[in-house]
Every structure is written in structure tokens, then in C-alpha cells.
Predict the structure.
Amino acid sequence: MVAELRERRPGDMVNLSSVELLGGTTMPNKKAIKAAEKALAEAKSAVSDARQAVKKLDRKTRRKADDLRVELKRAAKSASKSIERDVRTATKRRAAQAEQITVRRLSARAEGGAPARDEVAADASTGPTYRELREQAKVRGIRGYSRMDKATLAAALTTS
């Protein structure tokens, strides 16, 4: 009988008039039915507990996903603000550089004529390099020097 039970698939009908136990003894019909009902109740309870555990995990997972979604929105907002700030800063730098060039050209014209483009380029190449300007800014403790370009570094070093 035990071999028959092992070969059966779920849903197959079982004759419960007497059930052979693992030790080879048989169990009367009423006891077998009670034992089967008890086993079925325990199985149902286990399935119910498993479902509740899955729901609990599912809730936790949803909460984590919601938290990550909120964190992602914050990061996107922060990145957007950072980009806007960088664009504004770059625009200000370009304006400051254009103003410096204009001032140099006007002062050169006032001194006796407009300098050739080669002279302006030679002026820029004879000055300190970008790395040298960064080192000087670092030594002087100028804040934000790592994000400055060469012209801004030069301007910041002359004003400090």
C-alpha cells in the first residue's frame, strides 16, 4: 500500500478503508481519516503561512521600490539644478572672458593701435599654464578652483 501511495499523483483517489503505515502496521478507517484530515489541515496552514510571508515580502519590496523611486526623483532634481547652475556659471565665464578681451583690445587701441591676433595669442601663451594657475589657487586657498577654467583662475588669483 505504501508503494501505491508513493506512485500516486496529487488528485488520485485513495482507498481509506485501511492505510498501511511505514512500519508495516495497518490503521483502522476512522483513525486513518482523522490522521489524513489532520495532515490536510497542517498542509493548509502551511500554505496559508507561506502566502502571508509572500505578501509580507511583497509589501517590503514595494516599499523599497517606492523609496528608491523617491530617491531617484531627488537625485534627478539635484542633477537638473546642478546642470542649470553649471550653464549659468559657464555663461558668466564666457561673458567675463569676452569683457576682458574687449578691455584689452580697447586699452591696446588707446595706447597706439590694435594689436594683431598673433600678439594676443602670444600674450596668452607667455602666461602661466592652467596647471600652474590651479596650484597657485590651491596654495592660496581659493574656493572652487577645481571647477574654474584658465581665465577664471587668472582673474581669481589677481583679485585675491
Summary: Residues 1-6 have pLDDT under 50 and may be disordered. The longest strand covers residues 18-20. The CA atoms of residues 118 and 124 lie 10 Å apart.
